[in-house]
Design a protein that fits this description.
It catalyses: 4-aminobutanoate(out) + n H(+)(in) = 4-aminobutanoate(in) + n H(+)(out); beta-alanine(out) + n H(+)(in) = beta-alanine(in) + n H(+)(out); glycine(out) + n H(+)(in) = glycine(in) + n H(+)(out). It holds the Pfam family Aa_trans. Belongs to the amino acid/polyamine transporter 2 family. It is a single chain. The protein has about 525 residues and is an all-alpha fold. It has a single domain, classed as Amino acid/polyamine transporter I. Helix content is about 65%, strand content about 0%. The protein has 18 helices and two strands. It has helices at about 1-30, 50-60, 95-105, 110-125, 130-160, 180-190, 195-225, 235-245, 255-260, 260-280, 300-310, 315-320, 330-355, 370-385, 390-405, 425-445, 445-475, 480-519; strands at about 165, 175. The protein has a two-stranded antiparallel sheet with strand order 1-2. Strand 1 and strand 2 form a beta hairpin. Helix 5 (about 130-160) runs parallel beside helix 17 (about 445-475), helix 7 (about 195-225) runs antiparallel to helix 17 and helix 10 (about 260-280) runs antiparallel to helix 14. The longest helix is centred in the last third of the chain and has 38 residues, at about 480-519. The radius of gyration is 24 Å and the shape is globular.
């Protein structure tokens, strides 16, 4: 009897604890401490196969459903596992399917405005600071490309979500896939059932690591131009920034970092407004005659990559759509977010270029007067340093799960011990990744070139090429002729832009690398 009484008291205490955790998770979610998806988080924060621990860090603990237990209580708010049709048993705890479902339901369902805010953060981040430089080499065609990229990325985001669904035996449209990786694997099955997912993961790792490098580059660049009188070179500033970032190697989750996400995003919007306000104050001196219809053939392909990279958000859209209160509102949400992004990016790039014309620099804040440049750049450096852990942590997650924790298919021994602690050599590899981003930033300290290369290689692939190809492969029989035309056109145009931008960016990087090596 005493044992039974203790058991019941323990169950009651556990239930109360779970309710308290659920309420706290819901409170933090409503305050905005969730889905820290600015442009740095795109492609990793919501990736279904990767963000299990990330979501636990954002929302304390992901609660397990107790509804199947005898005498258990129904699932709490924020603890309902994803089931589009509301039927079917939950997969075993700890299985890959369970992780996929939890990654889509680690938090309460989002209203459309909240999902739109996440997409806006992903495509309106600090990398818009490079857009005026794209107008410098593209003129009016660069402005057209900003509009064109918004239209295409909005369309490919929609068709990517369409690939998650299929028609069942009853003629109902149901969600049968959870992530970008699932879509890629479905397209390569049955001959190569995991090839597509590996390609997507490789593209994702490249984009994540390049994003980390860009943060180190922009930190060194901004600090050097903010304090030009100090006897500290841009390389030295990059080393200082990396020393600050080295503790990222010890991260277990992003709980602490994620709390700064909303504040950093709001600060960046304020900085954009300040830059536009300064440009408007000099409207009388705008150089309209400098905006040309011709392009710089050698440098414009790099501008293509810069513009495409600023719109990348496709990798996390499956999780975002799966977590919406009403997924039918996804299309409307994509429309207004990309229209707003197109208008804001176009205006920002145009007014900034009109203000400084041929003197426009790779990072537009470097053109500001010295009186306000230092303050603005320090805020941007703080945002860059606080944003660095997001792509770094996700890149580490991908590498560890694919190379060290993939069961019998892992290439190397598990980097975690039996007690769940990271082994010393695993920690060394994390530190090596931080140092690698530093070395790249030192030898190729060119923000525009790196951004153009990343956009041309992984941005165009994940946003243009793969969605259109997957859409044709999975839904070929159900597509109307104009959808087929759009998909083929996007694939061809995206392929040409990607190859051209990649070649020119790579040539520029090789030349810059040689120059720095000689120095």
């Amino acid at each position: 009897m005493a044992t039974l009484l203790r058991s019941k008291l323990s169950n009651v205490a556990t239930s109360v604890s779970h309710k308290s955790q659920a309420k706290m998770s819901g409170m933090f979610a409503r305050m905005g401490f969730q889905a820290a998806t600015d442009e740095e988080a795109v492609g990793f924060a919501h990736c279904d196969d990767l963000d299990m621990e990330h979501r636990q860090g954002l929302q304390m603990d992901i609660l397990k459903s107790e509804g199947s237990e005898e005498g258990g209580e129904p699932p709490l708010e924020g603890d309902i596992h994803y089931q589009r049709d509301g039927t079917g048993p939950l997969p075993p705890s700890g299985s890959k399917e369970a992780c996929s479902e939890l990654s889509g339901q680690g938090k309460p369902p989002q209203p459309p405005w909240e999902a739109g805010w996440n997409v806006t953060n992903a495509i309106q981040g600090m990398f818009v600071l490079g857009l005026p430089y794209a107008i410098l080499h593209g003129g009016y065609l660069g402005l057209f490309l900003i509009i064109f990229a918004a239209v295409v990325c909005c369309y490919t985001g929609k068709i990517l979500i369409a690939c998650l669904y299929e028609e069942n035996e009853d003629g109902e449209i149901v969600r049968v896939r959870d992530s970008y990786v699932d879509i890629a694997n479905a397209c390569c099955a049955p001959r190569f059932p995991t090839l597509g997912g590996r390609i997507v993961n490789v593209a994702q790792i490249i984009e994540l690591v390049m994003t980390c490098i860009l943060y180190v580059v922009v930190s060194g660049n901004l600090m050097y131009n903010s304090f030009p009188n100090l006897p500290v070179s841009q390389k030295s500033w990059s080393i200082i920034a990396t020393a600050v970032l080295l503790p990222c190697a010890f991260l277990k989750n992003l709980k602490a970092v994620s709390k700064f996400s909303l504040l950093c995003t709001l600060a960046h919007f304020v900085i954009n407004i300040l830059v536009i306000a300064y440009c408007l104050s000099r409207a009388r001196d705008w150089a309209w005659d400098k905006v040309k219809f011709y392009i710089d053939v050698k440098k414009f392909p790099i501008s293509i990559g810069i513009i495409v990279f600023s719109y990348t958000s496709q990798i996390f859209l499956p999780s975002l759509e799966g977590n919406m209160q009403n997924p039918k509102e996804f299309h409307c949400m994509m429309n207004w977010t990309h229209i707003a992004a197109c208008i804001l990016k176009g205006l920002f790039a145009l007014v900034a270029y009109l203000t400084w014309a041929d003197e426009t620099k790779e990072v537009i804040t470097d053109n500001l007067p010295s009186t306000i440049r230092a303050v603005v750049n320090i805020f941007l450096v703080a945002k860059a340093l606080l944003s660095y852990p997001l792509p770094f942590f996700a890149a580490v997650e991908v590498l560890e799960r694919s190379l060290f924790q993939d069961g019998n298919r892992a290439f190397f021994p598990n980097c975690y011990g039996g007690d769940g602690r990271l082994k010393s050599w695993g920690l060394t590899l994390r530190c090596a990744l931080v140092v690698f981003t530093l070395l790249m930033a030192i030898y190729v300290p060119h923000f525009a070139l790196l951004m153009g290369l990343t956009g041309s290689l992984t941005g165009a692939g994940l946003c243009f090429l793969l969605p259109s190809l997957f859409h044709l492969k999975l839904l070929w029989r159900k597509l109307l002729w104009h959808h087929v035309f759009f998909d083929v056109a996007i694939f061809v145009i995206g392929g040409i832009c990607s190859v051209s931008g990649f070649i020119h960016s790579l040539e520029g990087l090789i030349e810059a690398f040689r120059t720095n090596a000689e120095d």
